[in-house]
Amino acid sequence: MKKILLLLVLATSIFTSCKTSQSTSLQSSENIVNVTFLHLNDVYEISPLEGGKVGGMARVATVRKELLQENPNTITLLSGDFLNPSLIATFKYEGKSIKGRQMVEAMNAVGFDWVGLGNHEFDIDEADLQRRIDESKFQWLASNALQNNKGTLSPFAKNVDGKSIPFPKTVTLTFKNTVGKEVKMGMFSVVVPSNQKDFVHYDDFFEASKKAYESLKPQCDFVVAITHLNKVDDEKLAKMLPEVKLLMGGHDHDNMLFKEGNVVIAKADANAKTVYIHRLTFDTKTKSLTMKSELRAINEQIKDDAEVAVVVKKWEDILDEAMIKAGLNKNDVVTTVKIPLDGRETTMRNSHTNLGDLIAKAMTAAATQPVDCSIFNSGSVRIDDQLVGAITQLDIMRVLPFGGKIVEVKLQGSLLAKILDTGLQNKGNGGYLQWDKISQDDAGTKQWLIDGKALDLNKEYQVMMPKFLIEGKETNFGYLTAQNPAVKNIIEPDDKDTNDIRNDIRKVLITYLKK
């Protein structure tokens, strides 16, 4: 009769030839080794959202401690996108741009073990990214993203005590029990190449995954992956590598759990509204693996971890001070919505959303004289999430963290047509336009319609737009400046007039929603 033992498991992380170990324990039979993953993805906010109802890193820390009590062999990981975007990242602290510093500090306090790169990690410049990497206590895994130094490619690396430690492309985690039985688990991580920067080189993520798996399989009992890909690409990857047991994904912001063949693909909701808990059980005798995945809601029923709560409060206070200076009240509820307002990057930069329509209508309503239409660049919306329920001024700041003026521009119809055509050509990037009182004739001609009437190339139109646009700063809009002869007039609010809401698009939206 087999004894039921309390096993002590030693988890050893092997980085190429470098090994570190940590003691863990779990309850199981002598042939069983259990591994638990606490899996998050696309987290931009360390504080709870929706009036404190969902999310929050201090609550995640509590769940992690509970899992460690259940099974000390628990790995906490984030499948990319955490350094950006966030509201607080747009401000400065101690004279330096924050740019994800608050997230790294909170994640260090939680005790994250591993992260994969997401496309938003490359929103910040190379120097700030390196600072965040060096500040992190968790480990980074990157199978297809390399640092490009003027054509010289090398792994990104963390500087620790004067030493440069490269990100591994693969890692093998070895778990042993007290009677000598062990399991070796391989892991790799890939990211979608949707954020092209001079300092980043992306290998093809399919080929990189294949190479990673082929290098891991001979030395591992099973392989899992951290992926930051679209759902469709996760499915293709699972078909290509049918022996990979689990893809812990990101990039998509809605929770999902499904199988492609025998491969389990999972993604939690963005901003830690939910997390996935994957419990893997490996039988060292039969070499079989079983898995159970549980979606756990992060909500008010979970108590804050006291130590992490202190870190979160520190950054909340910093944000509060910044908002007060901007003349805004973060807790003021401006409206309540039942249908989620879609501010996700993948939708706003490729189609028109209800949030985009709302912002554009607010711009129209803020005009000092009748305007023919309003336009703004989708890239000004940085929340990369959906809003539902009570919407506060803090939420509006998260939607439009950069603020900025809106101006009234009189321009020739021919230029307006060019602007709208450019907006369509910018599909997929921040220069894709959202608008009010604009449409296209769906009779096959695709002619532009302004307030339901065909755009007249020779007519002059009054158009509301962000000052950022008329300065020619957006992608492919270099021609859109005050010097363009087709721009007839620009009405700009007075900087000194604190009562003119046009000085801040966030105040424009807040005022509109409160009516």
From TrEMBL:
<keyword id="KW-0732">Signal</keyword>
<keyword id="KW-0378">Hydrolase</keyword>
<dbReference type="GO" id="GO:0000166">
    <property type="term" value="F:nucleotide binding"/>
</dbReference>
<dbReference type="InterPro" id="IPR006146">
    <property type="entry name" value="5'-Nucleotdase_CS"/>
</dbReference>
<protein>
    <submittedName>
        <fullName>2',3'-cyclic-nucleotide 2'-phosphodiesterase (5'-nucleotidase family)</fullName>
    </submittedName>
</protein>
<feature type="domain" description="Calcineurin-like phosphoesterase">
    <location>
        <begin position="36"/>
        <end position="254"/>
    </location>
</feature>
<dbReference type="Pfam" id="PF00149">
    <property type="entry name" value="Metallophos"/>
</dbReference>
<dbReference type="GO" id="GO:0008768">
    <property type="term" value="F:UDP-sugar diphosphatase activity"/>
</dbReference>
<dbReference type="Pfam" id="PF02872">
    <property type="entry name" value="5_nucleotid_C"/>
</dbReference>
<dbReference type="InterPro" id="IPR006179">
    <property type="entry name" value="5_nucleotidase/apyrase"/>
</dbReference>
<dbReference type="InterPro" id="IPR029052">
    <property type="entry name" value="Metallo-depent_PP-like"/>
</dbReference>
<dbReference type="GO" id="GO:0009166">
    <property type="term" value="P:nucleotide catabolic process"/>
</dbReference>
<dbReference type="InterPro" id="IPR008334">
    <property type="entry name" value="5'-Nucleotdase_C"/>
</dbReference>
<feature type="domain" description="5'-Nucleotidase C-terminal">
    <location>
        <begin position="336"/>
        <end position="475"/>
    </location>
</feature>
<feature type="signal peptide">
    <location>
        <begin position="1"/>
        <end position="18"/>
    </location>
</feature>
<comment type="similarity">
    <text>Belongs to the 5'-nucleotidase family.</text>
</comment>
<dbReference type="GO" id="GO:0030288">
    <property type="term" value="C:outer membrane-bounded periplasmic space"/>
</dbReference>
<dbReference type="GO" id="GO:0008253">
    <property type="term" value="F:5'-nucleotidase activity"/>
</dbReference>
<dbReference type="GO" id="GO:0046872">
    <property type="term" value="F:metal ion binding"/>
</dbReference>
<keyword id="KW-0547">Nucleotide-binding</keyword>
<dbReference type="InterPro" id="IPR004843">
    <property type="entry name" value="Calcineurin-like_PHP"/>
</dbReference>
<dbReference type="InterPro" id="IPR036907">
    <property type="entry name" value="5'-Nucleotdase_C_sf"/>
</dbReference>
